[in-house]
Amino acid sequence: MNQPILFTCGVDEAGRGPWAGPVTAAAVVLDPARPIAGLTDSKALSEARRDALAPQIRDRALAWCVAHASVAEIDALNIREATFLAMSRAVEGVTSQCRLGEILIDGNALPKGLPCAARAIIKGDLTEPAISAASILAKTTRDALMLDLDAHHPGYGFARHKGYGTAAHAEALTRLGPCPAHRTSFRPVRLALLAGQDRVRR
């Protein structure tokens, strides 16, 4: 009786640090028969290179899934647990497409309740092509979401800084106050919210 083929899945996230927007995770099972040249940590690639690689990954991978944890989930759980939630959702999406034997996750910790053996690999996005592919899908998908949020919440510069804590973002927070896309559990956003409430009371 033939044993079922078990695949290795790479997982990475984008958006742990920003003050706004969801945290996004991707899970990817690469096809050895259809290699993709140039895979590495998404942060080491230009935006144009990431945008060129992302459709290749979607086309050539045996399985892939991108998932999110919302701003509300981040604020309710904390960013670490919300990141694990997004990762678990991405893995679940891949398990509906193929059977997994091992999951490789970028970082130093693992979500609970994964469906098979898993390893956390520090800087895995530089050494494991499947994690690299996941980092690219997570980053490009989240960046596109931030462009959409920029259209819905103009004035904060989401299209430029993608929600990260830049000086321009801090200035916009002070001037406009937080919008629904902001993570109120993050200190700079919480302080801006409190400052706005103080102004209203006065």
Task: Write structural notes for this entry.
The protein is an alpha/beta fold and about 200 residues long. It has 2 domains: about 5-150, Nucleotidyltransferase, domain 5, CATH 3.30.420; about 160-200, no CATH class. Helix content is about 45%, strand content about 15%. It has 8 helices and 5 strands. The chain has helices spanning about 45-60, 70-75, 80-95, 125, 130-150, 160, 165-175, 185-200, and strands spanning about 5-15, 25-30, 65-70, 100-105, 115-120. Strands 3-2-1-4-5 form a 5-stranded mixed sheet, sandwiched between helices. Helix 1 crosses helix 5 (about 130-150) and helix 2 (about 70-75) crosses helix 3 (about 80-95). The protein is globular and about 65 Å long. The relative contact order is 0.21.
Short description:
This protein has 202 residues and is of the alpha/beta class. It has helices at residues 47-60, 71-77, 79-95, 124-127, 129-152, 158-161, 167-176, 187-201; strands at 7-14, 23-29, 63-69, 100-106, 117-121. It contains 8 helices and 5 strands.
Secondary-structure blueprint:
Elements lengths: L6 E8 L8 E7 L17 H14 L2 E7 L1 H7 L1 H17 L4 E7 L10 E5 L2 H4 L1 H24 L5 H4 L5 H10 L10 H15 L1
Parallel strand pairs: 1-4, 4-5
Antiparallel strand pairs: 1-2, 2-3
Helix pairs in contact: 1-5, 2-3
